[in-house]
Amino acid sequence: MLRKPIFLCCKNIRTGCVLILFSIAHLFFVSCGGSKPIAAFEKETLFDLQYGGFENELRLFDLQVPGEVQTRLVMNEGFFYIANSEAAKIMELTSYGDLIGILYNAEKNPVPSFIGLNGSKTVSALEANNGVATQNAVAYPFNKISALAVDSGKRLYAADILPRERFVFDEKTKTLLRSVVLRFESDGSFIDYLGQEGPGGTPFPYIKNIYTTKQNELVVVCLIENGYAVFWFTRDGYLRFKVPLPPSVLPEYGTDNSDIVFSTLAQVIPDYNSPVLYLKIDYFPAEIDALTRVQSGMTFDQTLVYPLDLNTGIYADPIAVPDFEQTVTYGYTKEVFAMAYEFLGVTESGWFFFITADTEGFSILMLKESGQKIIRRRLQMDTDNIVYHSFSLSPSGIISALVAREDKASVVWWRTDTLIDSIIQSSRNR
């Protein structure tokens, strides 16, 4: 459950004193608009995780403490990887919930129960059921892990923070650089860490998220003072592209008049197949009081996703993302507002996924071929009892989630890939 960064740029006006209006609609009761019912993807609960300190448990005991929960979930080819920042460990589990691998900070976790006194590895209970997986444990001194990614070779990448004595202060940007990306082989052995220039390089600014591509390249998306910065590495760790994205390099918003328009670079996500970045930009025209001619607020207008080809540095035509309509109730009065979706990711076959919360769980918007194909679906979930969630979109289009409640956490998924497969097959049969 990530908070959206707010980077505002505008035309013809200073940006002060307008941020507080950005989320006013969230203060009221919100429901999904529209009269037609939307079909729901069928949810499958795969397994539960108890809270505690053992190797197959989660530590989420500080949910009442201010600050963002950092625990993340990634699904890769049917295996689930959980970076449990609060416990300083990374778990690898099967779709049945069996723990088959763990990387853990030995100072914050007990020695896994399957490790013998002599330190030798033992096979898991799966062997008794003709399974083939073995349990593996590797100690590593994590500090505060957050973003997580896994490539097709099961090489694991984790964003972490360096010890305080290794922080670097960038005088030019007045930014504290303290984040790195740790690299581990599939057996859990440590390779090295990546900084801005590659292995052992200068620490990154705050890492928003990390991604792997079909070529097993790594993409690091960072937040900087006035926007984003993206670092694209080869599988060997060599820097391929460094892309600063301050407001000055964003595409101009095409308007036919002199209206004041604010723009928010909300998210940056890489393409899975090629060196392309997708920039999700939300636009908010200013509201001007008719009597005083003074700006009184701003309203959401639309979302555009701009593909940026890193080989050429050229933006392609934007993809217009339909609005999500929400009905806000004030006593007996109802009003419909257009709201922006959150960008969930892009699949290998080129489907764009967007998500937002609604009164029955979450609404999903799927786009293909510059918005010519549009599918709306719902992920039904009792959000009243959820204290934290982390979504993951696989290259094939499966949506997975770690859903935490007060008593336990569950790993669930929605096989959205079956819908994509049926659409592809239908297109081939035409």
What characteristics describe this protein?
Neuraminidase, mainly beta, 430 residues
Give an overview in words:
With 430 residues, the chain is mainly beta. It has one domain (8-428): 6 Propeller (Neuraminidase), CATH 2.120.10. 3% of the residues lie in helices and 46% in strands. It is built from one helix and 35 strands. The chain has one helix at 416-428, and strands at 8-10, 29-32, 40-41, 43-49, 72-76, 79-84, 89-93, 99-104, 136-139, 148-150, 156-161, 168-170, 175-177, 179-184, 190-195, 198-199, 207-212, 218-224, 227-233, 239-245, 261-270, 276-288, 295-298, 302-309, 314-315, 319-321, 324-330, 333-339, 342-346, 352-358, 361-368, 373-380, 388-393, 399-404, 409-414. The strands form eight sheets. Strands 1, 21, 22, 23, 24, 25 and 26 form a seven-stranded antiparallel sheet that branches. Strands 3-32-31-30-29 form a five-stranded mixed sheet, with no helix packed on it. The chain has a five-stranded mixed sheet with strand order 5-6-7-8-9, with no helix packed on it. The longest helix is centred in the last third of the chain and has 13 residues, at 416-428. It is globular and about 75 Å long. The relative contact order is 0.14. Mean pLDDT is 83; it is low at 1-35 and 117-133.
